[in-house]
Fold:
Amino acid sequence: MEFSHRLDLFGPEIFAALNDKKVALEATGRRLFNLSVGTPDFAPADHIKQALIDAAKDNDNWKYSLRDLPELLDAVCAYYKRRFDVDSITPDKVMSFAGSQDGIGHLGLALCNDGDVVLLPDPCYPVFMTGSKLGGAEPWYYKLTKENHFLPDVTAIPEEVARKAKFMLVSLPANPVGSIGTPELYAQLVDFCRKYDILLVHDNAYSDIIFDGAHGGSIFNTPGAEDCAVEFFSLSKSFNVTGARISFLVGRPDVIAACKKLRTQIDFGMFLPVQKAAIAALTGPLDSVKRQCGEYQARRDALCGGLRSIGWDVPNSHGSMFVWAPLPTGYTDSMAFCLELIEKAGVICTPGFSFGPSGEGYVRFALTLPVDRIEKAVKAIADSGMIH
Ligand SMILES: Cc1ncc(COP(=O)(O)O)c(C=O)c1O
Structure:
C-alpha cells in the first residue's frame, strides 16, 4: 500500500536510541533521573478533580458534547480578565482544543494553502513545524540564538519574506530555550505583524511558570494585538492536567471561525466532565499555581546553580519548565552527549537538535523532579567525570 506523502514530511523517530538505552538500564534495576519529558510531576488541585468526578456520575455527560458549553466560554473570558487583566475577550473569540498540541497541529490545515510562508522559531517546540507542514506551508525559521538572548528579532526577517508570510508563531516563555518576553518585545512583534498583515500566533503554554519576579501575561496585554493575534491558552502546565487535554484558542473571531469550521468536520467536542473540570480550574483559587511557580524556580536554581558549581556553565532559564544547557567543553554532538550522560550518570535529558538545527550544541533539561532529586542528579553528573 502506498501511504500518504504527507508522512514523508516527518523524519524517523529520533529518540529510539535514547529510549532503548533507558529501557535497558532500567531492566538492570538502575534508578534513573528522568529530566527529559515536559509533564509536570505536581498533582491537579482537588476542586478540579472533584468537578470531573461529579460530572462523570451524570449519564447525560457521557454523550457527544458537540460544542463548548456557554459557561465554559464565559469562564475563559472571565479568567482572561482576572488573570491577565484583559477584558476584550468575548465568547465568539474563544474555542476549545484537545490541547494546544492538537490546535497547533491543525492550524496549517485551517489557515494555509500550499506554498504559504510561515515564520517559526528555530529551535522550537516540534509541533510548530508539524502543524505548518501538514497545511502545505513552507516554514521560514527565525533563529533564537544566544546572541539575541533566545528572543525573536523581527529586524532579521527579510522584507520579502515578511511580505509573503501568513502567520508568525511566537511562544514565550519559550520551550526549549527558557527565554521570556517583555512588553517592548511584544509591542515590536505586534507592530511588525500589523505592518505586514501577518497573523501573530502566540503559544502561551507557560504564562504561570516565570521566574525572578517577572510577570507572565497574555499577548492581548499589548495594544493592537486584538487586530492581528490569536493565542493558544493551555491549562496543561498551570493546572497539572496534561492528560485531560484542555486548551483554548483565543482572539481574532475570523480565525476562530475558520478553526471551528475545520474542527467540526473531524471532532464531536470535548468530553463534558472535562469541560466541567476546566470551568472549576478557571473559576477556582489560583494560590497553588503561584506556589508551584516558586517550586519550579527552586528547581531551576538547584539545577543551573548546581551545574555551575561543578564546572558546567549553564545559564539560568527565565521561564518555562525547561533549562537550555550548552554542551560542556569537549562535546559537540547533543545525541552522543545524551547517550553518554544516561550511561555514566543515569540522567536523561533531550538532545537539542530535536528542536531544530539551531538546537545542536545544546541539551534540554525538564524541571520535573523535586529539588532533592535534582541535587542528586547534579552529583551523579559530577561523579560521571564528564565535566572538566
Ligand atoms: C510550547 C508548548 N506548546 C504547547 C504544548 C502542548 O500543550 P498541550 O498539553 O496544551 O497540548 C507544549 C507542551 O509541552 C509546549 O511546550
About this structure: The pocket of pyridoxal-5'-phosphate is lined by residues 38, 99-101, 125, 171, 175, 203, 205, 234, 236, 242, 247 (CB under 6 Å). The chain has a mean pLDDT of 96.
